[in-house]
Amino acid sequence: MDAPELVALLAGRRLAVLTGAGISTDSGIPDYRGPDSPPANPMTIRQFTTSLDYRRRYWARNHLGWRHMAQTQPNAGHRALAALERAGVVNGVITQNVDLLHTKAGSRSVINLHGTYATVVCLDCGHTMTRAALAEQLEAANPGFTERAEKVGGLAVAPDADAVVSDTDSFVFIDCPACGGMLKPDIVYFGESVVKPVVEQAYSLVEGAEALLIAGSSLTVFSGYRFVRHAAAHGIPVAIVNRGPTRGDDLATVKVDAGCSPLLTLLAEELAGSARSR
Question: Is 114 a catalytic residue?
Fold first, then answer.
């Protein structure tokens, strides 16, 4: 894999990195919008909060999907970004993913733009609990559900820890143990906004960098695209590595149409080496 324009642009610069679902495909988590992705219709916040049936379906599918995500391991792309942070090249990662794979890979400065799958929050009182603790309660309320679902066949898991399973009508979900209110994974649903302090932290990370690298995001969703616009408005060069077109291609100084793992591995070798020689 050779990307001389990409290496030339980023060499000697401190980088902020924005990642999307495309960086996690090599870990077995499918993309929403990649060239080979199946059609996906993620649940909206309105559906979740206004429909008992939607909420039951979500928790049934998440009950299966979150375990798969919890067991998933980082790939070469995640490890390369962690190595670049250790080398002083990357000043932080803004990720649209909820899979925690950057943290598992050893990255320390990570802004989880859309939250993570591992925490659950009550929309009424703000009580939080781990997803693992909720899983024990859901298991007790739905004996045999996991085994029955797995007998039907392999589970297809989406980037938001949602698993495709059809028989959800009998699933019993749990309300908040503190107030009886509505529990929700602490992730940003479609139709929700990222909270302002997180957005400001991400803007600050971009402003403190000398280039912005996009890895594995189509930038279709504004929550990620805004940082490309912000970089461009501040004269900060933008490099994009993604399979297929992105919404930010017109603002990119360099665009490489490729998977993340080989390109980020190359960058780790080239940029970390040049950082050590400075």
Answer: yes
